Amino acid sequence: MSSEVLRDIVDKVNAAPDLTTALGIAVTEVKAVMAVDVCSVYLRDFERDEFVLTATDGLRPEAVGKVRIRSDQGLVGVVAERSEPVNLEEATGHPRYLFLAETGEQRFHGFLGVPILRHRRVIGVLVVRQAAIRRFNEDEVDLLMTLAWRLADAIGHVETLSEVIALREEPTGGSKPLFGLGGAPGVAIGKAMVVYPPADLDAVPDRAPNHVGEEIAGFERVVRTVRDEVAALGRDVGSRLGDEERALFDAYAAMVSSDSLVGGTIERIRDGQWAPGALRDTVREHVAAFEAISDPYLRERASDVRDLGRLLLTHLQAGDVGIRHYPKRTVLVGDEITAMQLAQVPADQCVGVISAHGSGFSHVAILCRAMGIPAVMGVEDLPAGQLEGSEVIVDGYAGRVYVSPSAAIRAEFDELAREEAELSEELARDRLAPSTTTDGVHVPVCINAGLQAEAVSLVDSGAEGIGLYRTEFPFLVRDRFPGEEEQVRLYRQVLANSHPAPVTLRTLDVGGDKVLPYLPINEANPFLGWRGVRVTLDHPDIFMIQLRAMLRANAGLGNLEVMFPMISGVSELDQCLKLLARARAELVEEYGAVEPYRVGVMIEVPSAVYAVERLAQRVDFVSVGTNDLTQYLLAVDRNNERVAELYDHLHPAVLSAIEAIVTGAHKHGVPVSVCGEMAEDPVAVLMLVGLGVDKLSVSGASVARIKHVVRKVSRQDAVDLLDEMLLQDDALTIRFLLTGAIEDLGLGGLVRAGR
Ligand code: PEP
Ligand code: MG
């Protein structure tokens, strides 16, 4: 059974709008792919301890919801008792064989049943049957098990049959989750606060005005300003181009203050909509009216109206700045939440983030993890505009969002959140214990930093240093390049704060999705374009200032490590090293001496994997940037939710690449760290320990949990597990098997909600 077949089924199941449809798709697809006579799902009714036929292809559809099997009866019961697959060539010979005439079934011989497990409990059984004698092969067992695992995920928190039935009857009810991607772990319950990009009318949410009179007066002020602006533009254009063009602007000005646009908006404000929402609806109405006209000239006016609408909205929003009141437990909701928007919410008030776009590897998700805020990204059908003020549940593990949840779901998440808090407390208590495997291998866990918010004390966090300081963040939040003195102050503070622990300062890594407002880069393929050292090597002025600042900040300390990002080959590294040597020579000349420092290179471009030995010989350490390495190896944009399913650092190619890096670097006595998000994925940590990685660097919020994982595993077991995983064909299977392994280690609470 090929992995594409499985992925295809999984994709279809994931795309289903609700659970009933998902189960229906699953049974039909499996029946076809495995060429069986029947495929059914039985879900457990915990109250009555029975399994209820919930979906089937092959049995009588009327039997769904009616046929019940006691958990100590039938082969379904055997699967549940054993919590493992039951594969019978000739089922009729089994003492628990049960023939249920009411399902309309034929006598069957071949039987394969696998448990659907959640939190170690069997919540259902997935069964295939064959009228003829048939022994299912290993591939088929694997397929069914993997699918059952995915179904458990889809079934999510719906644990009783009555809830499934309720879902079926009330498909839009508050129990139905919206599906996205886990962006940052944790669960949170809070109030939705919708943020939207400036001047995007379609992203404006519904909201009631605070005060109708003031809202109208504010809107009228904006109309006057915009009208004057447009008229002034017209005068300017007119003086340069002529009366005809000027007339166009006069028409715009007239349109801005037209009764239909202004009056229509004011009327809507009076009806209870705030000005941006009222404007949005009025503009939509006008656009629709113009678009319906057959005359092409008049039809084109639709775009004028849209433009004017945006102009008015920009002004309205300018007045809106600063008057946002964030609820105590704010969940930021939006089309594409940005790092800036997140930063605007007072730190203790943001409990969750839900974004229609992006993935777990977007920088905003990285920020969320750094701040310990659960996040769900890439929720495609997010009705963001209608969510303002609603109660929402964010499940950052499973990538699910519940809007206005039912009492049952809410109660369950209250409980899960309580368990989470309990586990976090336990982890925090042990955070200072060394991260040494059970067979005595010390794997230091460091911190990824780069935000002001992360001026954390290392002593307090349990981290053994800063393994990655992303210097671009201070560059991003300013409106110009920070000068040498400013950078010296900043880096010195970081180095001194952590002293004597090592601090890895990475040189500027802009480009890709990190664009400086004062260095706009407009490219069709930014991740394959001008980014990382490609930018800084082209700008030795900027680069030299930064390198000098780093070395100066290290004066009297000696815990500096300089690291270069996006190195694609030896000559690039040589150029960086040359500039670093030049900065050093200048400082020796100016100050007499320079404190020792270490130099490292990031391996995050596939070509660097093949050059690892030559790179390693030139530096003191290498650090694997698994975020980029995964995206470049698999050719999957790390920010694109459409292909996010394909992005997995557990892909066998990524594991093999890291294996090659470790082997190559160790051959020259050079240590290897991992500073991408992979290092904070508990299941992946099992692999990294097995691969012989010397150091891990993770966000502040993950230090305690990752140290906990390292402490629970032995290097030898991790090596054995790795060997087994390297035989697998795809990331999906590897993740499935590792999730089982982590549950066996008693660490399941680190990869899903609850303990
Ligand atoms: C990486 O690519 O893994 C990495 C750590 O760098 P960044 O996420 O900043 O690109
Ligand atoms: Mg990177």
Descriptive overview:
It is a single chain. By secondary structure, the chain is of the alpha/beta class. The chain folds into 4 domains: 167 residues, Beta-Lactamase (2-Layer Sandwich), CATH 3.30.450.40; 122 residues, Glucose Oxidase, domain 1 (3-Layer(bba) Sandwich); 116 residues, Enzyme I, Chain A, domain 2, CATH 1.10.274.10; 320 residues, TIM Barrel (Alpha-Beta Barrel). Helices cover 46% and strands 15% of the residues. The protein has 27 helices and 22 strands. The strands form 3 sheets. An 8-stranded mixed beta sheet has the order 7-14-13-9-10-11-12-8. Helix 11 links the parallel strand 10 and strand 11. Helix 1 packs antiparallel against helix 2, helix 18 packs across helix 19 and helix 24 crosses helix 27. It is globular. 48% of the residues are buried. The site of magnesium ion has 5 residues, from helix 22. Magnesium ion binds next to helix 22.
Q: Would you identify the CATH H-level superfamily of the largest domain?
A: Phosphoenolpyruvate-binding domains
Name every ligand kind in the structure. Answer: phosphoenolpyruvate, magnesium ion
Detail the poorly predicted runs.
165-173
Q: What number of structural domains do the residues give?
A: 4
- What's the overall geometry? globular
**CATH topology of the largest domain, what is it called?**
TIM Barrel
Biggest beta-sheet profile: 8 strands, mixed
The number of helical runs is 27
Beta-strand share of residues: 15-25%
Architecture of the largest domain, according to CATH?
Alpha-Beta Barrel
